[in-house]
Amino acid sequence: MNRAQALSKLNRSDMRNAAAERGTQRIFAWNRAHWIGMVVLIAVLLLLQWSSSMYLMPDEVLDRAAKILFVWFPGMVLHWPLVLGITNLILGSIRSGSLSFPLASAIIGPLAFGCTNLRLRPGFPYRSWAQWWKLMHAESGHQLLVHSLIGSAMLLICYTAVAFICYAIGSYGLRELFVDPNPQTASGRLLTWIRQDAIRFGCWLATAIMYGLLLALTLRGGMAAMAAALLINFVIPPALLVINGIYALRPGLTDVSVEKPAVPVGVHTGTCADAHGAHHGV
């Protein structure tokens, strides 16, 4: 092997290493979309933590919770996994998504719910920090800490599975269908039509969702009918005002300028004085 071949082989190796490094950076990137998703998840998580002490449980549930020292609230097993899965579906379906988001989003849930369990008395407000510190120095405090760690580990396994499965569905399924589809397929033609006028599609979609929610609440009856009355009186009118204003500001409706017809090159555009002179033979 001569010197030129050795240098060429070395350059190819460097290029492969650089490409692998760029691929790793793309897989574990962090950008604005990740920050937006994380802010949404933290807001929902804080709301679920705050509402955890408001559940009124039957006595047998409270007795069992006192023995196992870890309380499984509906927010842990229903609301949070649902929000976590939807968020990772969205982040997986966009081009800027990366594996950093499902990893980070799966970790914050067990951390928050583990801290909640340490300070929570089911059916009562949270313990104060003084009460919590006193409990940690007692014998039952160590048991509570161990059970909270075990419960958080179980939550971490479940949330990691939910986050990565939903991210994979969004990345390998929804992205191909709705972000980079084949133009010859039905989803590709639909996406092309949406991209032609995204504001029009968004306005129609928001209107359909709003009236669909109104219809569902009306058919449900009871307290839902009261919510429907509040919706149609106080939410729908300003929402329609905003939607119609946005719809009217579409580029296709605001460009009303009339273009003058182009004059062919070499054609003389005479004035009225030229025409008058030609009439009298001047």
TrEMBL record:
Keywords: Membrane, Transmembrane, Transmembrane helix. The chain crosses the membrane at residues 35-57, 69-91, 103-124, 144-169, 198-217, 223-243. This is Uncharacterized protein. The lineage of its organism: Bacteria, Bacillati, Actinomycetota, Actinomycetes, Bifidobacteriales.
